[in-house]
Amino acid sequence: MDMVFGRAWVISTHQTNNLIAVGYDDGAVLFQFGKEEPVFSVDSNMKIYMVNKNTVQCFNPKKISDPCWHDSERLSIPFKDVGTFDFIPSDILHSPNGRFVTIINEDSFVVYSSVGFRSKCFGKGMMGGQFAWSADSTMFGIAKSSVTIVLYRNFEKQPEIMKPRFGVDAIFGGPLLGVKSTNGLAFYDWQTRALIRLIDISIKSV
Among residues 4, 176, 185, 198, which is most buried (max CB within 10 A)? Predict the structure, then answer.
């Protein structure tokens, strides 16, 4: 990191969060790494998947024998390690039918089966962790760049690259593929890739 405050002399980390302070000749800079909120996903059977550093852990609340908890009580939850990665996942996303779980990084993804946590598909070169499932869980898409989307059907990469006419800032899953751009929010058919409707609106999420 090339800062404009001269030479760096000291660095310090916070004990309870992800802040790092760096002291320079002419000032100080406070950096924040990662997310403050935990990265997790819950499937239709209430099974919880959570990221702990570069490890994904799983926990089933239904297996707790004595769920008599009190307000503000600190819980000791028996999470089970299900996978370790050479990167720190930035998001976890279950498919709508709950049968698959996607581990997402800023530029890559891996799809696993929920039962047994077996690898089904992986890919690289993704833009900003943009991943979306279709409503029936047979297709998903990734934003490859600010102008292209790559679709997968039954975990097979489709040869034809999708190029939305208004560009790509973010994508959203569901019955239709939602694509956010500077022109608004566009909805496309997953199968035909035809534009269904463009809404002139500024959004953060769908």
Answer: 185
Written as one letter, the residue type at 46 is M
Dist. CA 110–CA 103, nearest whole Å: 5
Burial 137-152 (b: 16+ CB within 10 A, else e): eebbbbbbeebebbbb
**pLDDT at residue 64 is higher than 80:** no
| Cα dihedral: 142, 108, 147, 157 (round 10) | -50
pLDDT at 198: 93
HSE at residue 134, side-chain half, CA atoms within 13 A, is 17
Q: Transcribe 64-82 into DSSP letters.
A: -S-----TTPPP----EEE
Q: Rounded to whole angstroms, what are the CA distances from 140 to 106, 153, 204?
A: 17, 7, 20
The pLDDT tens digits of the residues spanning 157-200 come to 999 999 998 899 999 999 999 999 988 999 999 999 999 999 99
Q: Tell me phi and psi for residue 140, to 5 degrees.
A: -150, 165
Strand, coil or helix: what is 102? Answer: strand
